[in-house]
């Protein structure tokens, strides 16, 4: 590609970088949690083939949003459609490690509050320092967990 001037080359470079940044923002991961046990379908319609029932509280990644339907992915990578009204704003996380360690502070040497088995749901309280997030178990215990030990963040 030939440029007439260095200004043209600069404009092209800025447009290219802006496009990359915009694409990254559009492709940012968006997670929600299932509000109530719900039937998942293979297409965005109640007349579509029912695939399975997903449990309340399960975190899901939103992939495609249509009017009243959202295509989601679960921790196992399964894709399905769910009605938008069946998703909650509250975010839960799902343990994917053999034993997730929840600590008093965002530090490997901090005291252990509790350990959680695979598939246990934890409520997302707030993002923590890099690589950590603050969570609460349904029994009220809370602390920090490494993001590599959970899914849905």
Short description:
This protein has one helix spanning 6-26; strands at 31-34, 38-41, 50-54, 59-66, 69-73, 79-83, 87-88, 92-95, 100-103, 112-116, 121-127, 132-136, 142-146, 150-151. It is mainly beta and 153 residues long. It has two domains: 31-88, Roll (SH3 type barrels), CATH 2.30.30; 92-151, SH3 type barrels (Roll).
Task: Compile the SSE list and pairings.
Elements lengths: L5 H21 L4 E4 L3 E4 L8 E5 L4 E8 L2 E5 L5 E5 L3 E2 L3 E4 L4 E4 L8 E5 L4 E7 L4 E5 L5 E5 L3 E2 L2
Antiparallel strand pairs: 1-4, 1-7, 2-3, 4-5, 5-6, 8-11, 8-14, 9-10, 11-12, 12-13
State the distance separating the first and last CA atoms: 41 Å
CATH superfamily label of the largest domain? SH3 Domains
Largest sheet: 5 strands, antiparallel
- Please state the CA-atom Rg, rounded to the nearest Å: 20 Å
* Overall residue-averaged pLDDT value: 87
Number of strand elements: 14
Please give the CATH class of the largest domain: Mainly Beta
Structural class: mainly beta
Percent in strands: 35-45%
The percent of residues in helical segments reads 10-25%
